[in-house]
């Protein structure tokens, strides 16, 4: 059974645009997923990337063009400049980690709910009330928003270090069986082909 380690940040529009395609692909191929939110700014620092604010204007302008194109292509609601971006991704990340460990709900749905809250609903995903609502909607105990902070913080640091070690350098990043990496929601079709055995 293949396994996918999924490295991402809870305020990434590109992660949001992945929607539920990863989960659909995993189900199709009988693959399991471990959700590993991480500190992407630290990953950038270690791998030569730059946070959005430090990128050239040409790169910022192209990012906007691509967001508009992908929004239209995927027919997904997306606010190009949401009211609460950037915001601190850590609290939502801690909640995802705690929820995954606790079980009882749908982790994929939780991740998507948090991303949608930022990019389609213009909510602050660093706000505990928003996180609690997302937890409840995905079938988890909303108290994990606060009760899972310590465990979440420790795992968040570990996820970040692991992401750097395995060669992740941006979000979303999908790693199959610790070997084959795919960067970006626009590589999900390639991930599907790989799991189908169509790529060597």
Structure, described:
This protein is of the alpha+beta class and 200 residues long. The chain has a single domain, classed as Glutaredoxin (3-Layer(aba) Sandwich), CATH 3.40.30.10. 54% of the residues lie in helices and 10% in strands. It contains ten helices and four strands. It has helices spanning 13-17, 21-29, 40-47, 57-74, 90-102, 107-119, 128-137, 144-147, 149-166, 188-196, and strands at residues 3-8, 32-37, 173-176, 180-183. Strands 2-1-3-4 form a four-stranded mixed β-sheet. A hairpin with a 3-residue loop joins β3 (173-176) and β4 (180-183). α2 (21-29) packs parallel to α10 (188-196), α3 runs parallel beside α9 (149-166) and α5 (90-102) packs across α9. The longest helix has 18 residues, at 57-74. The radius of gyration is 16 Å and the shape is globular. It starts with a strand and ends with a helix.
